[in-house]
Each structure stands twice: as C-alpha cells, then as structure tokens.
Amino acid sequence: MKIYEEIISAGFGGQGVLLAGTLIAQAAIEQDLKTTWFPSYGAEMRGGTANSTVIISDEEIGSPVAFAPSALIALNRPSLERFLPKMKEDAVVIANSSLIDSKDFESDKRIKFIPISEIADKEVGNIKTANMVAVGALIKHLQAPSLDSCLKALETAFYAKPKVIPLNIKAVNAGYNYKA
Amino acid sequence: MEKILSRPKALKDHPLSYCPGCGHGIVHRLVAQAIDDLGIRERTIAVAPVGCAVFAYNYFNFDTTEAPHGRPPAVATGIKRTNPDKIVFTYQGDGDLAAIGTAETIHCANRGENITVIFINNANYGMTGGQMAPTTLLGQVTETTPFGRDPQREGYPINVCELLAGLKGTKYIERVSVCDAPHVIQAGKAIKKAFQNQIEGKGYSFIEVVSHCPVDWGKTPIDATKWVKEEMFKTFPLGVIKDETK
Amino acid sequence: MVKKLVKGNIALCEGAIAAGLDAYFGYPITPQNEVPAYMSRKMVELKRVFIQAESELAAANMVLGACATGKRAMTSSSSPGISLKQEAISYMAGMEVPGVIVNVQRGGPGLGNISGSQADYFQAVKGGGHGDYHLIVFAPANAQEMYEIAYNAFDIAQKYRNPVMLLCDGIIGQMMEPVDFNKEPKTKFEYRDWILDGCKGREPRSLKSLLMEDGALEKHNLDLQKKYKLIEENEVKAELYQVEDAEVIIVAYGISSRISKNAIKQAREKGIKAGLIRPITLWPFPSKIIASYAKPGVKFFSVEFSLGQMVEDVKLAVNGKCPVDFLGRAGGGIVSDKDVLNKIIELAK
Fold it and tell me: Which chains touch C (3 or more CB pairs under 8 A)?
C-alpha cells in the first residue's frame, strides 16, 4: 500500500464539508485510486457540526470509518476540538483561522492555520466556496489526490451545474496557492 | 323449462362455512351477482380478510389472495397500482377494517385508491366467538363486554362511513343492510355501483353492510334481523353518505 | 464505463430498477432515507409505482399484494421498521410470494440509535416472523455489491417463490464508493403459473397460508423444507480471502468483513497466517465451506457488530473440530482493525 489517506472534513452544517469530502473522493476516482466517503448523518447533523470521512488508497479499502485519520479540514472551532485528539502524529491539519483563534492551538505544530473564509469571500468572491479553498489547501500537503484530479473532479461533481465550475476552480487554486 | 335464476358464475359450488342465518352468504351472493352482471369475473382479484370471511377464497370463483389481519387495503393497493386494468376489491369485517386495520383503511381511502371495499359490520368479532368490535353498540353484551359496552370503559361505536366521508380521497360511500328482501335489493344496487365506479375509474368506493350475526348474538335469525332494524339502524343510519361520482 | 461515486443506498436502488422493479413501497427511517427519496423521483420518472406508505406494516403488505400478481416489488427500512414488516414477511413465506425486503440495520434493541449495526442477524436468518420458514438473506459488503445483489435478488426470489432480504447496515448504506453500473436493464420475464392476473381462460387461483384441512399445513411445511434444501444446495455464496494456509480464520460479513480484511493484511505482514471467510448469503449459510477449513490447528473467530449472533452458526458449522471465538461490539460501537489484529495475534500464539 503506497498511498493511504484517511481524511476528515468537518465544519458547521452549511459550510459544505460533505461536498468537500465528495470532491476529494471524486478526485481519487479520476486518478484511478480506490476511495470511500462516509458522512455523519441523521440526528448527528443537528448539533451544528457535520463531517465526512474520505479514505483514499491504491488498494481495496476496508473500513470507511477512520481509525487513525491522517488529514483534517476543520472549518470551525468545534470540529478542530473534536477531531484533533484523534489525528495521527504526522497528520496534516488545515484549520480555518477566519473562525478559529490560532493562539489557542499554538502548541500543536501539525496545524496549518489558513484564513479560509476570508480567502473565499475576498479573493474568490463567494464565501460559499470556503470548502473548496480548504480542499485546495489540503491536497497541497497530501500525496494524493493531485491538483489536476481535483480540478477534473469538479467538472464531474458539477456536471449538472456547469456555470459554477469556474468559480470552484478558482477556489481550489486559491487554497492550493495560498502562502502564509 | 327455462331456468331464470341460478348461482352466479362468480360463486363456486362450495358449501359456505358461515353460521345458520348469517348475513355473509347474502353479501357474497350480491358481490358475485354484481361481478357477473358487469362481466368482470376474469379480471377481478379479491383480497380476503382475517375474520369470518377468511375463507372467501373458497367461495368466490375468481382470483383471490389472503392478507394479514387488517391489511387488505395495503395488499389491494399493491395489486391495483401495479395492475390498474384489474378490478380489485377487499371484503372485510369490522375488526379487520375498523380496529386492527384502521390506519390501512384510512390511508388507502385518503390516497383515493381506485378500488372497491365491502365492509361487513355485524357489531362483534364473529370468528373468534363474539367479542366486542369497534362497532359494538353501547350497552351491547359481548364475550368481552359482559356488562354491556360502557363508553367510559370501552369508548363508542365507530361510524366508519361518516369517518371516511370526511376524506377527500373517497368518492362513493353508502351504508346498506341485508336484513330483509327490500334491503337486500338496495344492497345489491349499491355493491354493483361500487364496482361500476371502479370500472369507470371514478375512485374509492366503500359499501358498509350492516349485517346480522344470530349465533354470536345469541338470537334467532328472525330476532337478529329485527335487532338490526331496531337497534343497529339507530347508530348506523342507512343511505348514501357521500357520492362524488356524478 | 466510468464508475460513479454513489451511496450504497443509491446503488441498491439502481440495481433494483435495472432488475425491472415495478413498484417500491417505503416509509422513512434513518439510515435508509435515501432509498425512498431516490425512488420517489426515479420510479415516477420511469412511470413505475412509488408509494410512501402510512407505515412499515402497510409498505410490506403492498409488496405482498404487488408480488402476488407476479410483479417485482421491494420495500426497505431499518431495524425497528423491519420488526413491523415481519408480519407480512411471514405471510409471504407461507403464501410463497417473492418480495424483496431491505434492512439497512441500525443499533437496537428498541429504537436504539442510528449507527451501523449487525444486531438483526438472528431476526433475518432465524425467522423474525412466526412459523417454520427461511428468507434468502444476502449481506452486501460494498456499494458495488449493493447494486449487483439488488439486481439479482428478484430473479432468485421469483425462482424459488420466496422472499429475499438484503441485510445491510448504516455504514454500507451511507458510504459512497465508486460503482460500475454495468448491468443491462431486465425487461423480459418468464410467466409464472401461480400469479394472480385474472382467471381469463383458466381456473381461479388463490394465494393463502391458512391451511385448515387435516394434514394440509404439515404437508405445506414439508414442501417448504424441500424448497429450502434446494436453495441450500444451489445458492450459497461466500468470498474466501487468504484462507488456504490460514491458521486463524475470521468469519465476518458486510462492514465487519471489510475491517477484518484490513487486519488480516496487517497480520500477514507480521508473518501470521490469517484468512477470511465472508458469507455473502447468510441464509443459506456457507456451513460446508466453513467445515472444509475446520482442520486441526486452525482457530476460528467471528467478527460482528453485535454481541455474538452469527458465531452460533459458525460453531455449528465447525462442529467442535476447532475452537471458535468471538469479537464484537454493539449499539454503534465499531470494531477497529487494531481490535481484530490483536485478537488474531492472541489466537495465533
């Protein structure tokens, strides 16, 4: 198994964290990798936070539930607090500094604080694209999926709404190219 | 010599298992006659209940299926929706239709399924030996209301026709009786109309037959039919309750 | 063919639709809500029948009605709702009406919770409803299998005039995986000489489970048993994974089989010979296959999201020839690959 990532995407309901996970899974398919996507569902979604788990591998995937997550997108503070203790030691953690005070987590060197909401709002021009900015920022630090696959995946994911594709491409690129 | 009256083709030459003086046999005959008259025997599928009429499939000479207690409206829905060209009816007693199957009855009616429902109300559970039914009259003594039905303890008899008439999905509702010849003739007309409605795609038709159960009531057949007229008609008045087929 | 990323619940719908599903009858309950929602659009677009029933009782009985006329009908639910469907399921078994019932299991007993669970094994394979009967029970382990098993379930149900159950769980139903929708839609079906379609040009037919004549019900039961024997001979399906040289053999189905596979890979890396027998049919159970690996020196254990149900059937299959152990969690607790690996290591000592 050369490639194996367990990725959690979490945030407030409405921030598009399920879709962010879907995009990563779709990107894995574009790259001929195996993938699973698993959501929080039902009553669990009512507490204000939602999350999805994506697993990517070059081999058959066992559990779609992550036991040792290697990557996290945390779009809000409750998500970061909830999942940080579960992450692997060398995990990649992308945290939305527009909504989370980085000072409170300074001791954890795994966390990369990025003003995701701000980038989406000001640079991309639509706050709703924060999830895609986060995906762009994350994949830069993972072995898979690639940026190309992500951009291809956008076309598949938004097949029925081609108008929104350019905006989302812009968002993924903005996240990918962000420099602190 | 010309034969002017015989067993309808829709009824098998099979002895009925109903008690002496029971109203079921008459209603079977009326249903069979209507099906013969309308020429629909070969495309009819009936749903038998659990209760006295559980053996209806032994008597009717067309395709029939059993259904769990109270579920004929759901089974009939499954049949009719997947076979809209077939004539589908349920034949149910008061326990089946108005107690255990109340939800199925109401929702089938409310969906406006294009089926025919024949409802036999004899104010008690006949098959199991005469216990209280949802339609048992106030004060009526049954196996399980030995002191008479007391509304404080057992609630009131349900008027199913009036209940269903309030639902927009129902199109034809009539309450009839088979307690004597004139009533039998009227019942036959109502049943035929209920099938005619279905043939014409007019929607949900419901016929309640206020019937007699002499054995479980502990009455002679004559006294039983008298009791139907004198007591049951007060709670369950006959007539067309709703007609939106015109 | 490009694979589409879909939930197990949606793959299941597509399989049933491709199989020529005439009617779907459902009632909302988590975690299978995608099924009625998807069907409510798809079936109507296809001019087929969709009804959101007033209850699980009614939905199952609508399936009974539709299938009594030879049509292909399905209902789906999750554990508490499946308990309600047992009435109709027992009738279908007795009347020999071939419906398809899907259980996307959640935690129990009672209302339980909405997490994935495998606690309805007994209910699915040992009866569930009243009477001496069997369902044919399939346990898909991924979205592709949800699609394929649903695609074949109706043929098998009609072939044997027997209800078929797909026993899934919340995780398999909710997860998305790439699925290859590679099946041709079925359109031509064999005419069956027992269906109710109006008695034109033939004697009337009756479908019933009430057999009051002397000896009739016993004869009916014996006939059913003959049918079950035939099903046991022909329809057992299981996946074998690294069992040939295995000293520790896991028996697991559905979600727990996937986690077990991960653990087996890790065990093999450590030089421990572990393998998996994954029942794809839970009834008929792959007893003969399991028995064929019950050799001296081999240790078995089952992994389940329950506190020990299928393990009883594994013990019966092994028949005392090897030790049979168990690993499981209940109520939404998830057995991890590490848990399974530790058990393998413990048994391999």
Answer: A, B
Q: How far is CA C103 from CA C113, C167, C170, in A?
A: 15, 5, 9
Strand, helix or coil for residue A107:
coil
Residues A63, C255: C-beta atoms closer than 8 Å: yes
User: How confident is the model over A86-123, as pLDDT tens digits?
Assistant: 999 999 999 999 999 999 999 999 999 999 999 999 99
Residues of each domain in chain C carrying CATH 3.40.50.920: 239-348
CATH architecture entry for B24-243: 3-Layer(aba) Sandwich (3.40)
The tokens describing C289, both together, are 């296959």
Chain B residues with CB under 8 Å of a chain C CB are 41-45, 47-48, 54-55, 57-58, 60-68, 71, 73-79, 81-83, 86, 103-104, 106-107, 111
Q: What percent of chain B has pLDDT over 90?
A: 96
pLDDT at A44 over 70: no
Nearest-CA residue of chain A relative to C175?
Answer: A38
Say yes or no for a CB contact (<8 Å) between C61 and B86: no
CB contact under 8 A, C30 and A25: no
CA distance C206 to B62: 8
Sheet holding C176-179, edge to edge: A111-114, A92-96, A71-74, A4-12, A49-57, A34-39, C176-179, C4-7
Nearest-Cα distance to chain A for C261, in Å, is 6
Q: Around Cβ A106, how many Cβ atoms within 10 Å?
A: 10
pTM: 0.95
Domain range C239-348, its CATH number among 3.40.50.920, 1.10.150.120, 3.30.70.100, 2.120.10.30: 3.40.50.920
User: Domain limits at A113?
Assistant: 4-175
Report d(CA A53, CA A44) in Å as an integer. Answer: 14
CATH code, domain with A10:
3.40.920.10
Tokens representing C237 are 């399906």
Predicted pLDDT at C226: 98
Sequence letter at residue C100:
V
Is the pLDDT score of A43 beyond 70? no
Residue C197 to residue B61, Cβ atoms within 8 A: no
Average pLDDT in chain C: 97
